[in-house]
Amino acid sequence: MAPQSRPGRLWPLMGPAFVTAVAYVDPGNFATNITAGSTYGYLLVWVIVVSNVMAMLIQYLSAKAGVATGMSLPALCRAHLPRPVVRGLWAQAELVAIATDLAEVVGGALALKLLFDLPLLVGGTITAVVAFALLGLKRTTHRHFEFVITGLLGVILVGFVYDVAISGVDQMAVLDGTLPRFAGADSILIAAGMLGATVMPHAIYLHGGLTAERYRPRSEDERRSVMRSQRIDVVTAMTIAGFMNLSLLLVAAAALSGQGIDTIEGAHAGLGDSLGQASALLFAIGLLASGFASSSVGTLSGQIVMEGFLRRRIPVTLRRLVTLLPALAVIALGVDPTTALVGSQVVLSFGIPFALVPLIWFTRRSDVMGSLVNRRVTTVAGALVAAVIIALNVVLLAQLV
What pLDDT, on a 0 to 100 scale, did the predictor assign at position 141? Predict the structure, then answer.
């Protein structure tokens, strides 16, 4: 019997999309949205709105590919692409994994420093250990892992709702911020970082892998039932993740704009001064929950990448060390944490096309997807999303050069 045949399994708040949604509110989002709000006010609200709509489409396609084929996107690449291409895709995916772990470990370390004044290196190590422990839950049953990850997501949400409620957000300025525009080259760099923090390459790899592992429909009726639940799952999870990202930018714009604050430590102090110590405490707790949850999810994605592209599985501990050591090295070298976080999101934005283009190509092929092949309008929409992301990255590269 397919997993979705039981009514309890249709409950969207405990599905793969909510595990994936953690990638959309990782510490990199904290850094980029704080920088955007504190530097440009409400100007880049539209980036979050557009990115979130893109994310809904992309994660739905990833989930659909997993249900239709029983394979993750990396496994599909290995099955259908030439070996040199597969090896190249794997290499860039590993670089993406390192950038992802950098954001998550640095974020957790920052949170522990803000809460308990722990050295960053100690906090980064603790974050890695906790993430490893969370992954241990998945060895027993995916439901326990999903429950804990969703709970941590709820912790972040509570803090954001509180901060928005007391920050005095300018509603007309928010509406004006939905008009797409930039304010110079630096705003393009921040927008690219926001995009990289929202539409995450490892989330694309992860979602299809989770649905392929969890759902194995045996008939067309079961397949349609699974996809109905996945649509609910994706829309619900991505809407909440989008609200969190928007809330963070709005709070920064309302409480920190004009103060010259563009670091997480500065944001924490600024929130304490502007909104009270309760707001600052919830901000730090949310950052810690984000670091713990997203770090474990990032390692899980790394496993899917290696198994899919190379058909090799290594112990989780070794997998964790591969991506953890560069992050700890950055901390040990004394690189500014917020700069490292924003930079990691720019790297992630360059990795998006290498996941997104194959995803669109596979989901439009009836020989791969069967009855779940994309409609033409879906493929066109996906191609437009890919074109926008690639164009933004080209502009960003030109600006960096």
Answer: 67
Give 59's contacts (C-beta < 8 A, 6+ positions apart): 17, 20, 203, 204, 207, 234, 237, 238
pLDDT at position 5? 41
Question: Is the pLDDT higher at 224 or at 123?
Answer: 123
Indicate whether 281 pLDDT > 90: yes
Measured CA to CA, the distance from residue 122 to residue 117 in angstroms comes to 10
Count Cβ atoms below 10 Å from residue 286 Cβ, excluding itself.
Answer: 26
Helices 201-214 and 142-167, axial angle in degrees (round to 10): 140
78 vs 137, residue with greater confidence: 78
Cα gap 385→387, rounded to integer Å: 5
Any residues with CB less than 8 A from the CB of 113 and at least 6 apart, and which? Answer: 119, 120, 123, 265
Q: How many angstroms separate the most distant Cα atoms in the chain?
A: 59
Give the separation between CA 133 and CA 152, rounded to whole angstroms. Answer: 14
pLDDT tens by residue, 20-64: 998 888 887 888 898 899 999 999 999 999 999 999 999 999 999
Residue 87: count of CB within 10 angstroms of its CB: 13
- The pTM is what? 0.89
Residue 42: alpha-carbon gap to chain centroid: 22
What mean pLDDT comes out for the span 16-23?
88
Confidence category of residue 140, pLDDT binned at 50, 70, 90:
low
